[in-house]
Specification:
Length: 264
């Protein structure tokens, strides 16, 4: 009995459980360290892209990476089933349906890497570098999850691994984003918004697309208005999409000019 009690405490109050609000703070080392690790991995992929491309186990490496992403996503729901949605007895699982942008970004990136789909790459590139950046910049949903909890690592894996995967395909497989990917992102977000708005209105615990105030919303500093919050999020995504395309075009143009100057 003591063993079972210790197990319950470990999972529900320990590493797989929930902390206290405020234990994780934005713009601290706990916030920046995972991002720096991801940037370091992307730099390594770029540095050794030719060796990885010609490695006979490259496909296996890519599939293992995709499998890790799937495990990262599935572990989120396994933890909810085992531990529960939190200490509030009024909470229900209807607030934890797979309707978050980050979840579908990860799933889409997995399919893109496994199928080597250039069309999906354009979607994944613009999705990770627009809507996918917002929870990285404002990780408010893990305010109670410092590095002593599993959810902290699952959160950063779920949001950063797709970005690493996109740059892996860009550097190793030399994929290039196309402008139609921007339209694909806008269409994807519109389709996802339909069930999200429905469940947000039907269930008090539902908080999809971070449109509601409270519950660790990213934009709580705005007036309490779903439409205003939605408009700001749309504007932010559009701005990031435009910046992504502009930066990419500038980089590729500079790279092309350098190749011409070298006579390649």
């Amino acid at each position: 009995m003591d063993g079972i009690a210790r197990e319950v405490i470990y999972f529900k109050s320990g590493f797989f459980g929930y902390g206290t609000l405020g234990e994780f703070k934005q713009w601290t080392p706990a916030h920046f360290l995972p991002v720096l690790v991801a940037v370091g991995l992307i730099v390594l992929v770029w540095r050794f892209k030719d060796k990885i491309r010609n490695w006979k186990y490259e496909k296996d490496l890519r599939f293992i990476f995709a499998f890790i992403m799937i495990l990262c996503e599935m572990s989120y729901f396994w933890r909810l089933v085992y531990v529960g949605p939190g200490t509030d007895p009024d909470k229900t699982m209807m607030g934890f349906l797979p309707l978050q942008v980050c979840q579908w970004t990860l799933i889409t990136t997995v399919f893109m890497m496994m199928r080597e789909s250039k069309k999906l790459f354009s979607l994944c590139f613009f999705l990770t570098m627009s809507a996918g950046l917002l929870p990285i910049l404002f990780p408010a949903v893990i305010s109670a999850m410092p590095p002593t909890y599993y959810r902290y690592y699952q959160y950063w894996g779920e949001h950063l691994l797709p970005i690493i995967g996109v740059y892996y395909m860009m550097f190793v497989h030399q994929y290039e984003p196309r402008p139609y990917g921007i339209l694909m992102v806008l269409g994807f977000l519109f389709l996802l918004a339909v069930p999200c708005i429905y469940f947000n209105g039907k269930y008090e615990d539902a908080h999809y697309l971070y449109l509601k105030h409270g519950n660790f919303a990213m934009l709580d500093f705005l007036p309490d208005s779903i439409w205003l919050t939605g408009a700001v999020l749309v504007a932010a995504v559009l701005l990031l999409l435009g910046v992504d395309w502009l930066v990419y075009r500038l980089v590729t143009r500079k790279r092309g000019s350098a190749a011409v100057a070298k006579g390649e």
